[in-house]
Amino acid sequence: MIHSGTDPAAVAEAARLIRSGELIGLPTETVYGLGADASNDAAVALIFAAKGRPSNHPLIVHIAEAQQVLDYASSVPPFAARLIDAFWPGPLTLILPRKPGVATAAAGGQNSIGLRCPSHPVAQALLKACRTGVAGPSANRFGRVSPTTAAHVADEMGDALFVLDGGPCDVGIESTIVDCTRGQPVLLRPGVLTRAQLEAACGESVLDNEALASSAPRASGTLASHYAPNAKVHLMDKTELQAALAAVEPSQRIAVYAYSIPGIDAINAASVLYRAMPLQASQVAHELFAVLREFDAQGVAYIWVEALPAATEWDGVRDRLTRAAVQP
Predict the structure, then answer these.
(1) Does the pLDDT value for residue 269 go beyond 70?
(2) Which of 130, 162, 202, 227 is the most exposed place for a label (fewest CB within 10 A)?
(3) 232-324 sits in which CATH class?
(4) Answer CATH for 2-211 from 3.90.870.10, 3.40.50.1110, 3.40.50.720, 3.30.428.10
(5) CB 173 within 8 A of CB 288
(6) Which of 73, 51, 222 is CA-nearest to residue 133?
(7) Which residues neighbour 155 within 8 Å (Cβ) at sequence distance 6 or greater?
(8) How many CA atoms lie within 13 A of 253 on its CB side?
(9) Relative orientation angle of helices 121-130 and 8-19, to the nearest 10 degrees
């Protein structure tokens, strides 16, 4: 059931459901989430069951304001506090040391917790009405394409779920995740915030997890295979993509998402479903998951995506497409 997120009665009902231990769908500026009371382990277990997600794979807890961080975290390093000041509310998740006995199920049993303060006005209204943190992974089956509209959530999770409609998500890919538990900021998942932005805000170098010998906490959306549509995704450079298009058989059903292939509309038009990729990374992030869902709805067998520019602002989109192209 989809309800308007601008309707105060719908927000109040969603908050009541959360406090009652039930699940709801909620919009954020990144993607839509499947929400439950983070302090209620039984309610959080319903998220894992609904998504088909392993219970040791932690969830991000959404809070209404920065002051709630210490409800869940035992400490906040100074560089993490600077990141909070710079980017909250917004598309940044911080992994912090977890208070013992708090949000155990949402943390996947780890001694750390992922926290985020979303900027979406409907999410903010809900979190303030709930008066509790809301565990909220993306509202889709585990490993599949994340939803960026309320209709996507209903398609994924069924009409029985109460979904607040906040319109299409502005950002369109999940939040940047920075691990703050190892004495220095470590990037676990890129998003729309660039490394340069993070470093300028926190005043320290942001390290790559792969460069450190110590193991990182488990975090959302960091498995090798993730964000995958039903169709098989292949990333190709321009030359590879042009050669593959020239060899397409009329019986094949291919989707192409590219930004620099001339004359593509004339290539086996009956076999190739083409969407032009925007030239700005933020615009691609905004539409990426909706495009993948659109291609799936057309019944294509393969999605060919042109390799992205090397600039760092593309890292978040590149991460999602690389994981989508890994076969589970």
Answers:
(1) no
(2) 162
(3) alpha beta
(4) 3.90.870.10
(5) yes
(6) 73
(7) 147
(8) 9
(9) 50
